[in-house]
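Appendix B. One record, verbatim.
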Amino acid sequence: MIYSTNTKKKLSQLSKDTPQLIVFVGKPGSGKLQIMKDLSSSITSPANITVIEPVDGKKTIGIEQIRDIKKISFLTKKEPQVIMVPNAEKITNEAQNSMLKLLEDTPANLHIFLGTTSLGKLLITIRSRAYLWRVMNPTIEEVINEYKNLDINKIEQAVKLTSQRSRYLEEYLVEGKTPLNIDTAKEILSEDKFERLQRVNGLSKDLQQSVDTIESILLISKAAAEIAAKNNDLQKMRPWKNRLALCLESLDLLDKSVQPKLVLTRLFMVL
């Protein structure tokens, strides 16, 4: 996977001097999970890496799973231990408070890596204790150089569709996958208001699905606005810029914990 120069530099530095708590912040598809895996692998063996995800069909990570982290923290292994939580925004406030107590007595060889698309979902007391890593996208020049064996037109299309996010670039250019929910987003943009609103209940059941859908509409809007601007077509550019602004507002509302159903309804009414 392609990394920005900034990411490569941080990986090198932190593999030698790893903070005990790191929060990786980045948009969907920015490559947070792969960075967490690469850093973990550079400081310990796979047997010493534990990944925490919601269990038994639950949408959140509860206090009982944080207790599992506590059990690991009290092990007497000398090797570095890494706890990875790729979707830390799913940790309940109660569980986050429990994690705070754990951090007060964290053994020197225990490292906790939290990944999130929304820093505001984490308690400020956790954020204040953490090393914050804001994942940066590679530049266009870095993307072109990384995939120089591919057709330049395909690379340019990928840049527009992915906004240069590392994982989405890899999926589109190497694996042949359409990033995010681009196909669904195209359908939504082609539908009338009534058809869009019929989708709200299904899409709003899961926060990440809501975020991914809005992000997909945002990426299409951004690409279309850039094409219109390049062609100096202001008439076509304005509605795409308006959609782009609406998507950014919607993502901000989700970040502030407004219910996904309300956010999607508001967005789909005015797209």
